[in-house]
Design a protein that fits this description.
Layout (H helix, E strand, L loop, with lengths): L1 E2 L7 E4 L3 E2 L5 E2 L1 H10 L3 H16 L5 E6 L1 H5 L1 H13 L6 E6 L7 H12 L4 E7 L7 H5 L4 E4 L1 H4 L6 H17 L2 E4 L5 H9 L4 E2 L22
Parallel strand pairs: 2-5, 5-6, 6-7, 7-8, 8-9, 9-10
Antiparallel strand pairs: 1-10, 3-4
Length: 225
């Protein structure tokens, strides 16, 4: 994720992928629903959080982790995240991304989660904002730090005027609330030009860089230092 003003890398997003017995990469769109069906979803989330913190202990950079509304409201997951933040020296470098497509039903619990993580310097982002429905009321009720604009809107901004106008509206709204914006799915120089034209703060996508695989074998161990 780069700063659109300086083009410097500011942070990395930690994405979940499953590598099967044949070495093929399986999308979370496939294995996350299954993990929920077999009641193993919490374990997946904990693994991603543990691996992300372990890796970035050694790298002086910010990083982001995706979590769901389900993660926030479950007592054991809430406590796991708080314990991780309390015990880590890099809690001030993590941003938790909440999916915008997850219907937030209990604002009190979400507000409590955000308040607690900010005690440790962590930040919060609304992910995929603009996908399905854009609930602008979320932004007036929750003290979020970032809005990540959904790739379905960003990817055609250079040719689809309606998409451009929707993104422009989101950016202007965020700016008035003092919320930073991130454009997802920046796949070409033309899209990046539009992102800069709208003064979106950060950009990520295949034009910036492609995802790389981090396995349990190459997670850095800083405990030996």
């Amino acid at each position: 994720i780069v700063d659109t003003t300086t083009s410097n890398i500011k942070k990395y997003e930690c994405l979940a992928r499953l590598i099967d017995a044949n070495g093929d990469i399986v999308s979370p769109l496939v294995f996350i629903p299954i993990s929920k069906q077999i009641k193993n979803y919490n374990s997946v989330t904990k693994i991603i959080i543990d691996k992300s913190f372990a890796h970035f202990e050694c790298i002086e950079c910010e990083f982001t982790i995706n979590i769901s509304f389900e993660d926030i409201v479950k007592k054991d997951m809430f406590e796991f995240i708080m314990n991780k933040l309390r015990d880590s020296k890099i809690s001030h470098r993590v941003t938790f991304e909440i999916l915008e497509s997850d219907a937030i039903e209990d604002f009190i619990k979400v507000e409590r989660f955000i308040t607690e993580i900010k005690r440790y310097g962590a930040k919060i982002a609304i992910d995929d904002f603009g996908s399905g429905y854009s609930n602008f009321s979320y932004l007036t009720k929750l003290p979020v730090d970032y809005i990540k604009i959904d790739g379905s809107l960003v990817k055609n901004m250079d040719t689809d005027y309606n998409s451009f106008v929707v993104v422009e509206t989101i950016v202007q709204f965020a700016q008035k609330l003092g919320i930073k914006t991130v454009a997802e799915y920046v796949h070409s120089s033309a899209i990046l030009d539009k992102v800069k034209e709208l003064k979106i703060d950060y950009a990520q996508g295949y034009f910036i860089d492609e995802p790389s695989i981090l396995t349990s074998h190459n997670v850095k161990d800083c405990s030996k230092k």
